[in-house]
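Re: the 126-residue chain
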Amino acid sequence: QVQLVESGGGLVQPGGSLRISCAASGRAFSSSTMGWFRQAPGKEREFVAAIRWSDERTYYADSVKGRFTISRDNAKNTVYLQMNSLKPEDTAVYYCAARWATGTYSYTNVRGYNNWGQGTQVTVSS
């Protein structure tokens, strides 16, 4: 049974940094792609970043490119999202997700993922 557990969210001032983590268990992740999504109040869940576990190829939404960095630690089975230069519009619940099959939906689509974590709140405010 796959489990994804996010941690590290919190309150940060605009311009600040935060790193959130996703601890993965229950299955081999070597053939997976791991994604981060976020959902602000009243908005749809949106793609933030993804990393292909096997070769660490990364993908980013335009809104976070150059500010956020996704990475993974194979030994700890953990995926990270380093967020710098945070803006109030980055405020959201951030979700970790995993996918194994490259089916109909792309890695930017919530429907393209098999498993989800419970989310961690990130609030950017002064």
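The chain has a mean pLDDT of 95.
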